[in-house]
Amino acid sequence: MEVLAFGVQADEKPLIEAAFEGHHEVRCVGVFLDADTAAMAAGYEAISTSVNARLDAGVLQTLAVGGTAMIAQRSTGFNNIDLDVAERLGLTVARVSFYSPYSVAEFAWTLAMAVNRRIVRASNRTRDFDFRLDGLMGRDLRGRTVGVVGTGKIGEAFTRIAHGFGMRLLGWDVAPNPACAELGMTYVPKEDLFAESDVISLHVPLLPATRHLIGADALRLMKDDAILVNSSRGGLIDSEALVGELRKGRFTGVGLDVYEAEAGLFFLDKSLEAVDDDTLARLVTFPNVVVTSHQAYYTTDAVAQIVETTVANIDDWAAGRRSENVLVPAAPAP
């Protein structure tokens, strides 16, 4: 069987081709799956998509009409897929429920340290041979408080690094993680976490209940010199409310690897175009904000796990097997 993989980055392609070898043929394309590109999938029983694909009702209908029966998403998140429509159309949808949590946790700390120690500003200065230290003063993390919002596998990995820094650990989750508690984490109401933490990092999925979890009220509770990091899903933060607080001169730094309107922007070269997203344009102008393009997961270790699981998901579907990765079960391949 030949599989069409959408949204493949140049660095990913050799890993994907190696993982599929001996299982299925794979055709990799750089374009993302959306209403304009869905017709490319005609004749492919199985396709693979990235997190920034748009699988709404119209796209899913086009896929079904073209003969696609299986969608293997190369990510843990699946808020970009209309699962109800997929089920109604008889499409199987699977995701990657687990990959290296260290990739995201380490990158979240990279963002926190970058804004704390003004790394981007310092690097830009030295490129111009400006070696002054004015405006570059950061803070020690040891002894300060970190608030971890979501203490699953990634949140736990983030917490272990914080423990290594010698920080006071606060956590918030629907269910406490015993491993985090053993490290000394105290679980508190999220309002207390926001108010007491010097560093706040988000590691929860995007669900209706967590959309804009960090809104105007939550932001006002945070310390004026707090560091806020989001390497999970952009929709967790109300971006306009965040801009409003930044304009008041608040926060030591904000590190964002995700953005709630990133679809159609992230993973693409927009450097020669006028970007009409005023909120994002404003965010990137603040000297205490670092925005990266959803790259926290992007290590050879994590991507290798993602593509290996994707191949296994397609193998399982073809053989009529079902795993924990299946979001919408449907008929197996004939």
TrEMBL record:
Domain D-isomer specific 2-hydroxyacid dehydrogenase NAD-binding: residue ranges: 110-296
A family per Pfam: 2-Hacid_dh
Annotated keywords: NAD, Oxidoreductase
Source domain of life: Bacteria
InterPro entries: D-isomer_2_OHA_DH_cat_dom, D-isomer_DH_CS, D-isomer_DH_CS1, D-isomer_DH_NAD-bd, D-LDH-like, NAD(P)-bd_dom_sf
Gene Ontology MF annotations: D-lactate dehydrogenase (NAD+) activity; NAD binding
Signal peptide: none
The D-isomer specific 2-hydroxyacid dehydrogenase catalytic domain, residue ranges: 8-327
Annotated transmembrane regions: none
UniProt-listed PROSITE patterns: D_2_HYDROXYACID_DH_1 (PS00065), D_2_HYDROXYACID_DH_2 (PS00670), D_2_HYDROXYACID_DH_3 (PS00671)
Gene3D superfamilies: NAD(P)-binding Rossmann-like Domain (3.40.50.720)
UniProt family annotation: Belongs to the D-isomer specific 2-hydroxyacid dehydrogenase family.
Protein name: 2-hydroxyacid dehydrogenase
